[in-house]
Amino acid sequence: MMKPDAIIVIDVQTELVEAHPYQEKTLIRNLQTLLSACRAQGVPVIYVQHSDEDGRELRHGTPGWKIARAIAPKEGEPTFEKHHNSAFHGTDLHEHLQAMSAKNLLICGMQTEYCVDTSVKAAFELGYSVFIPEGATGTFDNEVLPANKIIDFYENRIWNGERATVVSMEAALAGIQG
Length: 178
What we know:
The termini are close together. The chain has helices at residues 14-18, 24-41, 93-99, 112-125, 147-159, 169-176, and strands at 6-10, 45-50, 79-82, 104-110, 129-133, 137-138, 165-167. By secondary structure, it is an alpha/beta fold. The protein has six helices and seven strands; from the N terminus they run βααββαβαββαβα. The model has no long low-confidence stretch (mean pLDDT 96).
Protein backbone atom coordinates (compact mmCIF):
# COMPACT_ATOMS: atom_id res chain seq x y z
CA MET A 1 0.00 0.00 0.00
CA MET A 2 1.31 3.44 -0.89
CA LYS A 3 1.23 6.33 1.55
CA PRO A 4 -2.29 7.78 1.77
CA ASP A 5 -2.89 11.44 1.00
CA ALA A 6 -5.60 11.52 3.69
CA ILE A 7 -7.56 9.34 6.07
CA ILE A 8 -11.32 9.80 6.08
CA VAL A 9 -13.18 8.76 9.22
CA ILE A 10 -16.89 8.32 8.50
CA ASP A 11 -19.70 8.62 11.07
CA VAL A 12 -17.95 7.34 14.18
CA GLN A 13 -20.45 9.23 16.29
CA THR A 14 -21.35 8.88 19.95
CA GLU A 15 -24.82 7.43 19.38
CA LEU A 16 -23.50 4.68 17.10
CA VAL A 17 -20.58 3.79 19.36
CA GLU A 18 -22.84 3.74 22.43
CA ALA A 19 -25.06 1.23 20.56
CA HIS A 20 -22.04 -1.15 20.73
CA PRO A 21 -21.14 -2.16 17.19
CA TYR A 22 -19.54 -5.51 16.46
CA GLN A 23 -16.08 -5.73 18.08
CA GLU A 24 -16.47 -2.19 19.38
CA LYS A 25 -13.23 -2.16 21.40
CA THR A 26 -11.17 -3.52 18.52
CA LEU A 27 -12.73 -1.04 16.09
CA ILE A 28 -12.01 1.95 18.34
CA ARG A 29 -8.49 0.74 19.10
CA ASN A 30 -7.78 0.25 15.37
CA LEU A 31 -9.11 3.73 14.57
CA GLN A 32 -7.03 5.27 17.35
CA THR A 33 -3.93 3.48 16.04
CA LEU A 34 -4.55 4.66 12.46
CA LEU A 35 -5.26 8.23 13.54
CA SER A 36 -2.16 8.36 15.74
CA ALA A 37 0.03 7.04 12.91
CA CYS A 38 -1.47 9.47 10.38
CA ARG A 39 -0.97 12.44 12.70
CA ALA A 40 2.62 11.39 13.45
CA GLN A 41 3.40 11.09 9.72
CA GLY A 42 1.59 14.26 8.64
CA VAL A 43 -1.20 12.44 6.80
CA PRO A 44 -4.26 14.74 6.90
CA VAL A 45 -7.13 13.49 9.04
CA ILE A 46 -10.63 14.28 7.77
CA TYR A 47 -13.88 13.51 9.55
CA VAL A 48 -17.35 13.05 8.10
CA GLN A 49 -20.33 13.39 10.39
CA HIS A 50 -23.87 12.29 9.53
CA SER A 51 -26.70 14.66 10.39
CA ASP A 52 -30.32 13.53 10.19
CA GLU A 53 -33.45 15.64 10.08
CA ASP A 54 -35.07 16.67 13.35
CA GLY A 55 -36.65 13.81 15.25
CA ARG A 56 -34.31 11.12 13.90
CA GLU A 57 -31.13 9.66 15.28
CA LEU A 58 -27.90 11.59 14.75
CA ARG A 59 -29.77 14.89 14.82
CA HIS A 60 -27.43 17.87 14.47
CA GLY A 61 -26.27 19.25 17.79
CA THR A 62 -27.44 16.38 20.00
CA PRO A 63 -24.94 14.59 22.27
CA GLY A 64 -25.22 11.42 20.14
CA TRP A 65 -24.42 13.38 16.98
CA LYS A 66 -20.93 14.33 18.16
CA ILE A 67 -17.86 12.45 16.97
CA ALA A 68 -17.05 9.77 19.55
CA ARG A 69 -14.69 11.18 22.16
CA ALA A 70 -12.24 8.26 21.82
CA ILE A 71 -11.39 9.30 18.25
CA ALA A 72 -12.38 12.98 18.32
CA PRO A 73 -10.82 15.45 15.88
CA LYS A 74 -7.82 17.48 16.93
CA GLU A 75 -7.82 21.22 16.44
CA GLY A 76 -7.66 22.11 12.75
CA GLU A 77 -8.83 18.73 11.45
CA PRO A 78 -11.80 19.35 9.15
CA THR A 79 -15.21 17.79 9.64
CA PHE A 80 -17.69 17.57 6.79
CA GLU A 81 -21.35 17.30 7.73
CA LYS A 82 -23.43 15.12 5.44
CA HIS A 83 -27.13 14.43 5.06
CA HIS A 84 -26.86 11.42 2.72
CA ASN A 85 -25.02 8.09 2.88
CA SER A 86 -22.20 9.35 0.66
CA ALA A 87 -19.49 11.47 2.26
CA PHE A 88 -19.25 13.25 -1.11
CA HIS A 89 -22.90 13.99 -1.97
CA GLY A 90 -23.86 17.50 -0.91
CA THR A 91 -20.54 18.19 0.84
CA ASP A 92 -17.32 19.96 -0.12
CA LEU A 93 -15.20 16.87 0.59
CA HIS A 94 -14.25 16.24 -3.05
CA GLU A 95 -13.26 19.88 -3.55
CA HIS A 96 -11.22 19.78 -0.34
CA LEU A 97 -9.41 16.63 -1.48
CA GLN A 98 -8.80 18.11 -4.94
CA ALA A 99 -7.30 21.24 -3.37
CA MET A 100 -4.91 18.90 -1.50
CA SER A 101 -4.13 17.01 -4.74
CA ALA A 102 -5.20 13.85 -2.92
CA LYS A 103 -5.32 10.64 -4.92
CA ASN A 104 -4.92 7.87 -2.34
CA LEU A 105 -7.47 7.65 0.45
CA LEU A 106 -7.62 5.54 3.56
CA ILE A 107 -11.32 5.14 4.44
CA CYS A 108 -12.68 3.81 7.73
CA GLY A 109 -15.69 4.26 10.00
CA MET A 110 -19.34 3.29 10.31
CA GLN A 111 -21.55 1.71 9.11
CA THR A 112 -19.89 -0.75 6.80
CA GLU A 113 -22.91 -1.49 4.60
CA TYR A 114 -24.35 2.02 4.53
CA CYS A 115 -22.26 5.17 4.63
CA VAL A 116 -18.84 3.53 4.34
CA ASP A 117 -19.92 1.46 1.33
CA THR A 118 -21.58 4.38 -0.43
CA SER A 119 -18.57 6.62 0.22
CA VAL A 120 -16.10 3.98 -0.99
CA LYS A 121 -18.05 3.61 -4.23
CA ALA A 122 -18.32 7.39 -4.68
CA ALA A 123 -14.58 7.84 -4.06
CA PHE A 124 -13.84 5.11 -6.61
CA GLU A 125 -16.15 6.76 -9.17
CA LEU A 126 -14.39 10.09 -8.57
CA GLY A 127 -11.06 8.46 -9.43
CA TYR A 128 -9.50 8.00 -6.00
CA SER A 129 -7.50 4.93 -5.03
CA VAL A 130 -9.20 3.68 -1.89
CA PHE A 131 -7.60 1.59 0.84
CA ILE A 132 -9.60 0.05 3.68
CA PRO A 133 -7.80 -1.41 6.70
CA GLU A 134 -9.28 -4.66 8.00
CA GLY A 135 -11.02 -4.08 11.30
CA ALA A 136 -11.49 -0.35 10.66
CA THR A 137 -15.16 -0.37 9.64
CA GLY A 138 -17.99 -1.27 11.95
CA THR A 139 -21.64 -2.23 11.93
CA PHE A 140 -24.31 -4.14 13.81
CA ASP A 141 -26.08 -7.46 13.44
CA ASN A 142 -29.26 -7.10 11.38
CA GLU A 143 -32.28 -9.34 10.76
CA VAL A 144 -30.52 -11.05 7.83
CA LEU A 145 -26.84 -11.29 8.74
CA PRO A 146 -24.55 -11.00 11.74
CA ALA A 147 -22.16 -8.03 11.66
CA ASN A 148 -19.05 -10.15 11.08
CA LYS A 149 -20.59 -11.58 7.89
CA ILE A 150 -21.62 -8.11 6.69
CA ILE A 151 -18.10 -6.77 7.18
CA ASP A 152 -16.55 -9.83 5.52
CA PHE A 153 -18.95 -9.56 2.58
CA TYR A 154 -18.10 -5.91 1.90
CA GLU A 155 -14.38 -6.28 2.45
CA ASN A 156 -13.97 -9.42 0.35
CA ARG A 157 -16.83 -9.43 -2.18
CA ILE A 158 -17.80 -5.82 -2.78
CA TRP A 159 -14.69 -3.69 -2.26
CA ASN A 160 -11.42 -5.59 -2.49
CA GLY A 161 -10.03 -5.73 -5.99
CA GLU A 162 -13.05 -3.92 -7.42
CA ARG A 163 -13.51 -0.49 -5.86
CA ALA A 164 -10.84 -0.53 -3.19
CA THR A 165 -7.94 -2.45 -1.77
CA VAL A 166 -8.55 -4.01 1.62
CA VAL A 167 -5.30 -4.20 3.58
CA SER A 168 -4.23 -5.58 6.94
CA MET A 169 -3.71 -3.12 9.78
CA GLU A 170 0.00 -3.84 9.52
CA ALA A 171 0.06 -2.97 5.81
CA ALA A 172 -1.97 0.19 6.45
CA LEU A 173 0.45 1.31 9.16
CA ALA A 174 3.45 0.54 6.96
CA GLY A 175 1.85 2.54 4.14
CA ILE A 176 1.21 5.50 6.43
CA GLN A 177 4.87 5.49 7.40
CA GLY A 178 5.81 5.59 3.73
